[in-house]
Amino acid sequence: MSSYKSLKDKILKNNEVIGIIGLGYVGLPLALEFAHSKIKTIGFDLDPRKIKKINSEKKSYIKHIPSEKIKESVNSGNLKATTDFSLLKKVDVIIICVPTPLDKNREPDMSYIVNTGETIVKYLRKGHMVSLESTTYPGTTDELLLNIFDKSKLKAGKDYFLVFSPEREDPNNKNYTTATIPKVLGGYSKECNELGKMVYSKVIEKVVSVSSTRAAEATKLLENIFRSINIALVNELKTVFDKMNIDIWEVIEAASTKPFGYTPFYPGPGLGGHCIPIDPFYLTWKAREYEIPTKFIELAGEVNTSMPFYVVDKVIHALNENKKCLNGAKVLLLGLAYKKDIDDLRESPSLKLIELLQENGALVDYNDEYTQEIPELRKFNFKKKSVVLTKANLKKYDLVLLSTDHTYYDTKFILSNSKIIVDTRNLFKKHKSKKIYKA
């Protein structure tokens, strides 16, 4: 029996075993979907703490994923986690969910994908399917990964099957889940595409096939570039309208009443999350190979990365108006995550704000109930713990900076006990007070 027919038969009979490499914000929810659908799933990760959390404690380490889901999946026998990558031999479908950050020169850091590929090729066999979900530049799957897998002497599309299916996770989105967000998929060959669609259709309501892995890679980049450019537009307009004494939030609300031809985007203290601040630069890097400038993308990146500096300028202005200076000022930053009601710190502008404020001599504390202590991070090393929001604590600070608009923030309470507030999210829009400055 051919590798294609063998794997197809397993999938049709629900006998395939899924292996997911990387149990973070993308890999863990996907693993739980497969396990919930009664498909044997093995999660692979280098972090032994995650393995212990899943196998022994049966608890979640990501805020918006309930522990009950993990407990149910582990108890059913459909999910287990391991650091032993030799078990890749025993799975039929390998799904790669590893990070794709930028290096210090803002160029793609492909080390996670390369290292994962080098690990997989040790165990690659006939009948395997490999799916890459990590966001990357067009050509990664059928250039970089294929080149690594060629060391096995196996033929893609014949002996094993290769697809790219970009993640579309939006942590804590109340309207969409991993299962209900349509999934784009592109295969190295027709057979790869067919098998990939069969696998994902078991846990995803709608799978959208495209003609190639490159088309699927480009689709993900287009989605995030679209958002990056539009957010940059409103961020730039915020600075312009501020000089004109026009409230950008009021303008956006009014423009949103138009029922066609307009989609609202909102300004903020900068871009966060793994996708929007990083992914567009994967295309700018690849475009250089073709000697094509990507001016829109690069300009949007410049505008968005400048926002924390703009916010700090607003903090300085607010303090100056109250006869204080930033050097030596006590500042309480509200919200550490990159968006509200989650614990995800990836590329969060709040971290950059802390860095900039401290560089200018401010004494900075933060509050975030979802992150009680700042972990050790690649770019930042802040040894801080979350401050409890009490009347006494709020009154100690010269300025309160709202960076992330968590739902639990009681604006009336914060306003009544704070000296100055700089609001980057329009959270205090219902209050009229000279203590509030918008940034």
Tell me, what is the CATH class of the largest domain?
Answer: Alpha Beta
What's the architecture of the largest domain in CATH terms? 3-Layer(aba) Sandwich
Instruction: Give the strand order, joined by hyphens, for the main sheet.
Output: 3-2-1-4-5-6-7-8
Average pLDDT: 95
CATH topology of the largest domain: Rossmann fold
Bulk shape: globular
Annotation field: number of helices? 14
Integer-rounded radius of gyration: 24 Å
Beta-strand residue fraction: 5-15%
CATH H-level superfamily of the largest domain: NAD(P)-binding Rossmann-like Domain
Count of the domains:
2
What level of helicity do the residues show? 25-40%
Order of helices and strands: HEHEHHEEHEHEEHEHHHHEHEHEHEE
Strand count: 13
* SS class: alpha/beta
- Uncertain runs: none
Report the span from N to C terminus.
Answer: 65 Å
Major sheet, described briefly? 8 strands, mixed
Give the oligomeric state: single chain
Short summary:
The protein is α/β, with parallel strands linked by helices and 439 residues long. The protein has helices spanning 3-12, 27-36, 48-57, 67-75, 111-123, 140-149, 190-200, 213-243, 248-255, 280-289, 295-321, 349-359, 391-395, 411-416; strands at residues 18-21, 41-44, 79-82, 93-96, 129-132, 161-164, 183-187, 207-210, 330-334, 363-367, 399-402, 421-423, 436-438. The protein has 2 domains: 3-210, 3-Layer(aba) Sandwich (Rossmann fold); 248-438, NAD(P)-binding Rossmann-like Domain (Rossmann fold, 3-Layer(aba) Sandwich).
